[in-house]
Amino acid sequence: MRNPRARRLKLSVDERGARLTLPPRASLVSGERFLSEHRDWLATQLAHYAGAAPPPLERGLTQALPLRGETLPLRWGPGRFARVQLAGDGDADCIEFVAPERASQASLQRALRDFYEGQARADLGRWLPAYLPTLPRPPQRLQFKRMTSQWGSLSPDGNVVLDLSLALARSSAFEYVLVHELCHLVHANHSRAFWREVEARFPTWHAERDYFRAHGRGLKATLRSLLGGHR
Question: Considering the entire predicted model, what is its pTM?
Fold first, then answer.
């Protein structure tokens, strides 16, 4: 792909595949030559991501699902419509997925997406009351989307968008992202003043940033595999 802001050829690989970025004036021939020169590196990277790709959701075959940094056993059962819920005595110790025998893959994925969003919103309900009194104003709206690279964003009108794959991350990491975006209601930048606001509310934010560096791509890849390619 061509990028008007690119100054040099760039080859990158992630769980979605390989991408070659061309500056506006670079020729296709130079791009092909660049690929040829880096073919060994590219093959190694593609093999790495292919081996790390999580399996897709399959009725009756998927035996566990990630949630809040853990992997919980999954129990399948019949039902009139697709539904996912926590099950177990006391603290939930497994996930129950009920669905009609002929439920489509799309309906299974929608049910799982709804489950993850419901769990994520339950977490927000526990955390928000502690932070709202320290803010100049509350967010206008909180919503979840499947984000390609970001974990969260704040629009100029105060809407907070969070990546749905945060439901798979450990709770402290998810809470840090929430605090990060809420602090943008105080400072709409990443200045030293902004980071002081984050530090005051979440002193262990460095550890959570390191967690995302180590596991972030895996979290996004797992959600993409479970829910399919569509957002």
Answer: 0.80
- Domain coordinates of the chain in residue numbers? 10-52, 104-227
Q: Pairing state of beta strands 152-154 and 10-14? A: unpaired
Instruction: Write out pLDDT tens, residues 139-188.
Output: 999 999 999 889 999 999 999 999 999 999 999 999 999 999 999 999 99
- Kindly list the distances between the CA atom of residue 172 and the CA atoms of 10, 146, 215, 219, in Å, as whole numbers in the listed order: 34, 20, 14, 15
Which tokens belong to 145?
Answer: 């989307």
Tokens 């399996």 belong to 55
Residue 176 backbone class (left: φ over 0; alpha: ψ -120 to 50; beta: rest): alpha
**The three-state (H, E, C) secondary structure of 17-81, written as one string:** EEEEEECCCCCHHHHHHHHHHCHHHHHHHHHHHHHHCCCCCCCCCCCEEEECCEEEEEEEEECCC
Say how far apart CA 228 and CA 103 lie, in whole Å: 16
Distance CA 16, CA 224 (A): 9
CATH class of 104-227: alpha beta
